Please model this.
Amino acid sequence: MSKSSNNDPNSTEELEEGSRSILLGIASQLTKGMDLHRVTLPTFVLEPRSMLERITDFMSHPDLILNAGKIDDPLERFIAVIRYYLSGWHIKPKGVKKPYNPVLGEYFRCRYEYPDNTEAFYIAEQVSHHPPVSSYFYSCPEHHILIAGDIRPKSRFLGNSAGTLMHGESHIILTDRHNERYEILMPNVYARGILFGTMTLELGDSSKVRCVTSDLSCELDFKTKGFFSGQWNSVFGKIKKESTQEVLCEISGQWSNELYIKYCKTGNKELLFDVKASTIQPKIVTSEEEQGGYESRRLWSKVSTAIRNRDMDTATAEKTFVEDSQRAKARDREEKGHTWKPTFFDENNDEYTFKGREG
Model:
């Protein structure tokens, strides 16, 4: 088990000795740089939700993006997208908690009701298991916004840390701006202190947001905290005009606290996003009783209940049951020569497109 403080803004966690010993036992069988996707992790490091649901963290602050298409100035429109993208990272569990690896064909869906009486819809599906690929699609028709993409995580053991390389791309599309498209590359995620010290989750390395039609891009550097110096959860970025490489704005601060933007021409510095002043938009999810057998919350229901009750033996048994059932179905398909295809997404040259999307 673990101990954590509700007042800790960095979401750190101290593992109890028994849990630490289990991780040390697993680590003794690993080599540095080894792929962790096939390694079975103990349930006490799991967050009781699927990766398909965790992606919705980035839809938590719709007020920052819903009216982006109405902004006529390309730079200010771009800044609105940057603000929205950076606003989703602060939502994370204490310490190092990993969401469930979705099984093949698993899906999560929800909808949102906004204060202006508009709605949005989200669906994600695990379209590949080896290698893992999670595809997702969000639409708010009345505000002319689409968000789509896929996440292709590759986990590596790094000694006292584990790294998840966040391959894949996201796209924010403003359909009332002639389908103006913003391409987003994610930073990597690092679990620190898994063997000794304080456990915490950090973002590291670079991320990029780019809009070809506006001739704008932003390279973001997510800085990890040094052993003796540095600050938790820091990010620095520059918004540039791509054709000339002129720096128009600089972004700085902590994605878990306050972010600022400085306009280079005027020197004016403004608050870009304040976590403390933000409100998370609730999602509306169908009750588990009414969900399909492969919907995330129903599929993992017994595992999640056991984790919340801190009954790790039951959680482990139920998790093993879900995963063994998946392996049995994979063997059956292979024996019968059946090819599995996603339910909600079409695949073409390793790219996945939501089947319900028009245009």
About this structure: The first helix runs from residue 17 to 27. The longest strand covers residues 145-157. The chain is about 20% helix and 35% strand.
